[in-house]
Amino acid sequence: MGTTVPDMLQNMTSLTALSISWCGLVGEFPRGIFNLPNLRVLAAAMNKLNGTLPEFHSGSRLEVLGFGLTSFCGNIPDSIGRLQSLRYLDLSLSNYSGPLPPSLGNLTRLTDLELRLNKNLPLLPGKLQKLTSLFFSEMNLVGEIPVSLANLTQLYNLVLGGNNIVGKIPSFLMNLTQLNVLDISLNQLHGPIPSSISQLKNLEYLYLNSNSFTGIVELEIFMSLKNLVSLHLSRNKLTVLTKNITNSTLPKFNT
């Protein structure tokens, strides 16, 4: 048996932060909490809460909205674009559906966007140029990696694994030089792994496994990635060459 979120919280108009993640909460989430006038942080992730997102007001001060791993469902309302102060949005591992509202492009302060495991949402417009983390894994995304991502030059984490993305690794990804994590595993990408991937000097984690990459890949191209600690190349159709490797500084990788 879990505990429900008390309705009385909807009347706490002076509340600036409400963090109730991982609290074993169940039942319907009181919608009035979303529109408390002074609320800046609202985090209720990892609970068995259900409900839908409300219509948001333009005067909202919300900076953090975290409802990942809940039972929330329905459409993400277009009014979410009114949350002009929003920096962090996590709606991952829930049951949202319908189109991703173009108004998300209005959230110019947004740095972290997590929508993992929402099965019917398309990729967003590439207007969110302050994004540092984009988690869109296992969302049934189709088509090629969109060129709009080229605008997100501050990205630190780009996770697109477990979708149905096709095509080759686009050259514009090499402009995302701040990347620490690049995960495009478990897709339907093909063609060679470009040597220009060595331009991503800040990479620590590179997941290219479980695609249909072909051709010869020389491990020498990864030698310049001095921060790399995890390299995943398994389950492709690659021929791996090591003839020019002269030291043992290469990170461990899967073949």
From TrEMBL:
<dbReference type="GO" id="GO:0016020">
    <property type="term" value="C:membrane"/>
</dbReference>
<keyword id="KW-0732">Signal</keyword>
<keyword id="KW-0325">Glycoprotein</keyword>
<dbReference type="InterPro" id="IPR051824">
    <property type="entry name" value="LRR_Rcpt-Like_S/T_Kinase"/>
</dbReference>
<dbReference type="Pfam" id="PF00560">
    <property type="entry name" value="LRR_1"/>
</dbReference>
<dbReference type="InterPro" id="IPR032675">
    <property type="entry name" value="LRR_dom_sf"/>
</dbReference>
<protein>
    <recommendedName>
        <fullName>Leucine-rich repeat-containing N-terminal plant-type domain-containing protein</fullName>
    </recommendedName>
</protein>
<dbReference type="InterPro" id="IPR001611">
    <property type="entry name" value="Leu-rich_rpt"/>
</dbReference>
<dbReference type="GO" id="GO:0051707">
    <property type="term" value="P:response to other organism"/>
</dbReference>
<keyword id="KW-0433">Leucine-rich repeat</keyword>
<keyword id="KW-0677">Repeat</keyword>
<dbReference type="Pfam" id="PF13855">
    <property type="entry name" value="LRR_8"/>
</dbReference>
<dbReference type="InterPro" id="IPR003591">
    <property type="entry name" value="Leu-rich_rpt_typical-subtyp"/>
</dbReference>
<keyword id="KW-0472">Membrane</keyword>
<dbReference type="GO" id="GO:0006952">
    <property type="term" value="P:defense response"/>
</dbReference>
